[in-house]
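Support request, please re-run this one:
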Amino acid sequence: MLFTTQLSGQSNVEELFTNGDYVKVIEILSKKEAKESLTLRDYHLLTKSYGRNKQYSNGLVYSNEMIGRSLEEKDTASLVIAFNLKAENLIDAGAFEGGVVFCERASRVFREEDSIELQKLCFKWGMMYYHTGEYEKAYETYNKITLPKFRELNLFTNNYALTLIGLEKWDEALLYLKKSIATYKSSGNTDRLNVNYSNISIVYMNQGKWAESKVYLDSAASVLNSDSQLRTIKEVYSNYFHLYQVQGKQTEAFNYLELISEINEEIYRTKISEEIDALKTSNAREDQLREKVRASEKQTLWGAIVSLLALIGFISTIFYFKYKNVKSAHEKSVTEQQLLRSQMTPHFIFNSLSVIQGMILNKEDKKAVKYLSKFSKLLRLILESSREKLVAVKEELLALQSYVELQNLSRLQPFEYKVEIDDSVNEEDILIPPMLIQPFIENAIEHGFKERIDDPKIKIHLSAKESVLICTIKDNGIGINATKNITKSHKNSLATKITSERLKMLSKDFKIESNLILEDREKYNEKGTQVTLMIPYKI
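Re-run finished. Output below.
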């Protein structure tokens, strides 16, 4: 009788998922998780439901758990499905650089009998290569999709066309785009027409056919509505901006640049809302698990009534340490969020947009486009890293490089930036918390180079020793002693305090000593400031 009830419950969830009632699926399976372990199929449905409900952070959490469970049960078929689910959430969340690394590693696990799942992965993998500008690799990846029914899908046709655009194969790209439009029209599905129209306008724009480009761009704009994705709207506006810019119509181009700025702010607010929703879900899940623990302990208490006093003392001790762990985890989360938010404040965003506006008004069009491109890349990298507790050193250095390039573009006196990495450091395998190094780069720029310095330089040196990454940051600015005499920066001290607290928490978690040392280089008969970070890491 119990088996029949469970089977009926699972059937109900499957039916709800098929009918697209993802909110209900999440509600039912979350309640089930509070009482018992989820099956691999449950994880599959839950991950898919979060993704289709645009809660990509939660989708990533459950896809990772499904990967872990599949490895525990040695279920390779479920493992490759879980890989596809994680890749799907990564690309929907815009985590393209990390997604490329994940797909490259995951693809090695697929067996010959998993070829269909591997081809499914190639849909996401190829698009990640496209978004990171690796068009040749995207082209090679899409050509691994050989199943006829897959190549007939509009998803393939659209993404393949984008790859051809990246490779500047204009005529071939037009064929695929127009084929996709015909398929959409014949099926009565017009939701994606704006994307195809917009992409055709890009092709004509690159061919110098301004009139044809404008016609298709107007068609794309005409089918935009309140349900259109923000990224789609931004893409159409960006194409208008470039079209008017190449024709020298600066007023019209500037109007669309302002619209793009508004869309960027809305995208940023949406990202923050998604993170808040994910945090709420995570907290609710923890509450459910605690209730499950309490219920289990009550049953144990009733079963061991003869040892009541001893058991109460035991449980009290457990709860005390659990409380300390939960409190520590909460403080760690709050500290990390404070630091991440301090790196990309609205003031910095609006200041960057003002710089872009000034460049356009000064008719520095190429410089403005270059600045805008680097600014959007940096914003994306920081949003991606804010979702992860640990990132590869390679990803952290990539974000730092983007930040430095952006700063140099807006400065009258650019500075030299150099990174030295010892052979002991494996950039791809060593994982550290994100945004630990950036505050000290920012301090060097804002305070060390506050006065005019001849040949300003910032140098980073990385080495690894006994599970600790040693990061030394040197600048040849006015020095930390002079900086303290000139101004007592609250932001500077707050960044240092937060970083120190994060390092202390890492020491507790990894059981490895960490340290933060700030020195004026005058003690070494040199000029500037030296910061030494000793960061525990994971592989």
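Strands lie at 391-392, 416-421, 431-432, 457-465, 468-475, 515-520, 529-536. The chain has 22 helices and seven strands.
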